[in-house]
Design brief:
Layout: H1 2-24, E1 31-35, H2 54-63, E2 68-70, E3 76-78, E4 81-87, E5 92-97, H3 111-121, E6 126-130, E7 133-137, H4 145-149, E8 158-159, E9 165-166, E10 171-177, E11 181-186, E12 199-203, H5 208-216, E13 222-224, H6 230-235, E14 239-253, H7 260-272, H8 275-282, E15 288-289, H9 296-299, H10 311-319, E16 327-330, H11 336-351, E17 356-359, E18 366-372, H12 378-388, H13 401-412, E19 417-429, E20 433-434, E21 450-451
Helix pairs in contact: 7-10, 12-13
Length: 456
Amino acid sequence: MKRFAWPSLVISSLLAAALAAAETRPQYGGTLHVAMRAAPATLDPSDSTQTDSFTRRNLTLLIFETLLTTDSSGRMHPALALSWQAALGNQRWQFRLRRDVKFHDGTALTAEIAAASLRAANPSWKVFAEGDSVVIECETNDPEVPGELALPRNSIVKRNPDGKPSGTGPFHIVDWQPAKKLTLAAEENYWGGRPFLDAIEIEVGKNYHDQSIALELGRADLVEVAPEQVHRASIDGRHVSSSEPMELVALLFARDATTPEEKLLREALALSVERASMRSVLLQGAGQPAPSILPTWMSGYGFVFPAETDLPRARHLRDQVRGVTTWTIAYDSSDPIARLLAERVALNARDAGLSLQPAATPAADVRVVRIPLAAADPWIALANVGPVIGLPAPKINGGSAEDLYSAEQSLLATRRLIPLFHLPATYAAAGTLRNWKPGPDGSWSLADAWLENEKQ
């Protein structure tokens, strides 16, 4: 008997390993149910009237694709463009397209369609087709063109006469109820290979509470988690995943400071804010205090900006101004944490001798805003913040960390923006969702995700 004990053990181990491998092998089929808070009214990536959000970006990348993509380290990779090259000191860029790619309506991808799509998204760009390539000509040296082309808003879209957009992505549109629900199906002839999922149903406009209940009851497989609920969700055993801190929470003034006195008052407000206590109590430890626009993990220098409260100096600045008026501070009424932050900022300001009145109104002197940073690339992220807050993109001279810091300082010096926190995009998933997690920039990749013992 002893002669056969070892071979028997080996056979048993091999069988167990084979069964384990079979259990974890990706499965085709199933419908993924997703719930999101943002409620986009259109799926056109170039529609600048729609508020930017992680939801909108991720919906875009399920249906459409960009010429290039970036990995978790920020390196550029081919997507619809197989190769690219710069000439004339980064003033002329050429992107050679991938062959045999088709839109969901069966139309072949051409350089003419791609160029037209980019012109629609960027009216000021000089973009044209040249053979099987798209060419972009810039007025000045612009090394960030490839990174800009990787942004979801620069996805390639074929706009049909009926107004319906067609993409080349891993899923195509089955049904779209604006601001309510989007149903997608796997694209059988996707150039990158058919996705494992058969379909994705995405309900938009769902608040955090409704999303949590849907996940708990098995009605959703993937939902967002509010910043202040992340710690509790982890304790409750949810499958929680987060991006790097990619969302800037800040105070945004409606207009420029027109007098030196007004600048002093805004500086006093910035010095009165108790970020540490807000993070501890209101955000339950989520995110990072942010005296800077860019998070430290992205820029490498965020720690040099002072984040501590300085009430004595805030009061000193306040005392230099006579006849201080009351500012209204507004917040998104659908965002509970924004209301709490507005109220706490008003209390902090009172300690410095300032007067702020919270209100859920579209017209206010200052607002609590949440700005998803455009990319993990600090240069592109900073360049896109300016237009979002109503200022020109900062002028960046050179490519060093010092140049980046100087450009960020120029935006902060306007006193239009007072950064408060950097928050990650956080999601909770059902245990059956496999091979999925958000990227550092909050992006999804559901083409390779699959459902184990999926719900039918």
